[in-house]
Amino acid sequence: MTKILIGAPVRQDHAILREFLCSLHELDRTGLEVEFAFVDDNVEAESKQALRDFASREPTMLLAGGDEPEVYRKDEYGHVWNDELIWKVARFKDRLLDHARGAGHDFVFLIDSDLVLHPHTLRHLLAQGVDLVSEVFWTRWAPDMPDRPQVWLRDQYTMHVQRRDERLDQDEIERRKQAFFQELLRPGLHEVGGLGACTLISRRALLGGVSFAAIPNLSFWGEDRHFCVRAAALGLSLHADSCYPPLHVYRHSELPKVETFRAARTIQGERVAALAAFRAGITAWGTTHHTISDGCEGHAFLAAPLRAQLAPDAAARVELARRTQSVTRTHVVWLAQKDIDDDTMQIGGTLVRTGSLAGQPIDDSLGAKAVMRREADGAWRIAAVELQRVDPPQRAPVVRRTHGNRVLLSMLVRNEAGRFLPEVLGHAARYVDEVLIVDDGSDDGTPAECRRLLRGIQHTIVELGESRFHDEHRLRRLQWELARSRHPDWILCLDADEVFEPRMTTALRELVDQDRCDAIAFRLFDFWDQDHYRDDALWRAHRTFRPFLVRNLPSLGDAFATTAQHCGRWPLDVAGLRSACSDVRLKHLGWARADDRRRKYERYRRLDPDGRFGSLLQYESILDPAPNLVRWQD
């Protein structure tokens, strides 16, 4: 069960604090183990009692605040902070983070004590699957100011995109600010440069070293800025979600808004449910990739009349995909909605289609406008939809994307015709977006065989003419450089005799569409025949996880171990990446035939007679007449 710590430093008017605590009590915590922790820095006796009353009803730890309460003034014009107060709050927040680290919490949800939350907020933020995310809210920081969000893009509180070498006039700055505000008003997950006040923090971020402590050589005002700069320096992405904005009771005069906010919670939940149904339905219906074969995956999200209307079109679409070898994947990049009545909603979005058609890349966008209706079972379904081709939206490059990642299979081959290519490439073509083949001087027609097998997917085949395997680290570096030149998001590096078990076709998207780790490690099983893998002291690769799938980060270098043989398939920098282990298993078929084993034995003894780059014991064990074999279980 996921273990959550909800925490806050608290110095608050008792009337506002009461509404804050009430919203915490109302949070949906189904399937979660939730504890609370508050640093009690209150000066009002009523506020201290409110925390004690809450602790009598919920599992709560109360921590003492400062001995001498500093002056903290707030009125209808705003809140007045000084440097001592800011770093005092920073110390309080770090106490909460330290407690979560020591107690083994999976997440910390830090919330300012003048917020009123929607009951779905916690579970919704957890579902986003990112390390750092704040729910967006809007505040009028001074009476004469417009509402502004508590998230920003860069620096102290900058709300517009700007390259370091750009010079912008005030009109262009204002245009870009308004574009950012419009983006935040669209329900969904947005990447930002700064956040705070209502933030979910993962254990990976906690153990990575996030903190609110002051960075000595940074002059930015406010502990949240130092937290965000440190998080970015640690390689953590910052996100803002705009589906369940809380109410910020910034002034005492805003308390009457709480009743209106609570009355609108049901409507807000329905809007998010309808948006989710739109996204899931359009994405699935517009995708013909991986295991999707009948074109009906999105039909669960369609109203019955539309489902009947689209069924013939779906069949035609699948038949066309089969004839033209079309592979497409669709994802939604933004959403907007408008209420029509209690059970009807209009939703619009931009869908980005990527993939290939007859081996050529596809990258275009569709505008989608749908009428959503809530049906008798309570589910929202698409009652009508219009699609129109649009120019692709201009999106800033993102290093770690949480959707729409392109995966390139990079493979080094030599004289593989008649071996395992049909099985290996046929399976990989079901889940990757592009294939790069580097042919190391084959003379048996291997490149032609690869072209035939890959005719339905985008691919590049580089023929070297003569073998360079005697100098493997230079050959692997060339393979790496060629793979990166295709600009994929991820590179999967397999040999021509390696194939994943069938469930990789459905598992890959979850592995790559995330921003938590940059390398995925798998176990490799050395097959000694079609049904058994070898397991003994010299053959135990399957007991270790090794990276086969790596994010194409700009910061990665191209230096390999400088050994003629066994230099590895990745540059040295890959060893330092944040990694995750997958339980999807990888079959290595290269030892499964006796003739292949003998040829490999002879090649290793010829290229490495003294065992400088490998193990002579393992080389000799290749010809062991009675190795220990274990039956493969699907």
How would you sum up this structure in a few lines?
This protein is α/β, with parallel strands linked by helices and 634 residues long.
Helices, by number, come to 16
* Overall mean confidence score, pLDDT: 87
* CATH evolutionary superfamily of the largest domain: Spore Coat Polysaccharide Biosynthesis Protein SpsA, Chain A
Question: Would you give the CATH topology of the largest domain?
Answer: Spore Coat Polysaccharide Biosynthesis Protein SpsA, Chain A
- The tally of beta strands, per DSSP, is 28
Number of domains: 3
What is the molecular shape?
globular
Helix content: 25-40%
Radius of gyration: 28 Å
Characterize the biggest β-sheet: 8 strands, mixed
Structural overview:
With 634 residues, the chain is of the alpha/beta class. It has 3 domains: 2-263, Spore Coat Polysaccharide Biosynthesis Protein SpsA, Chain A, CATH 3.90.550.10; 273-390, Nuclear Transport Factor 2, Chain: A (Roll); 407-631, Alpha-Beta Complex (Spore Coat Polysaccharide Biosynthesis Protein SpsA, Chain A), CATH 3.90.550. Helix content is 31%, strand content 27%. It has 16 helices and 28 strands. The strands form 7 sheets. The protein has an 8-stranded mixed sheet with strand order 3-2-1-6-12-8-13-11, with helices on both faces. A hairpin with a 2-residue loop joins β15 (326-341) and β16. It is globular. The mean pLDDT is 87.
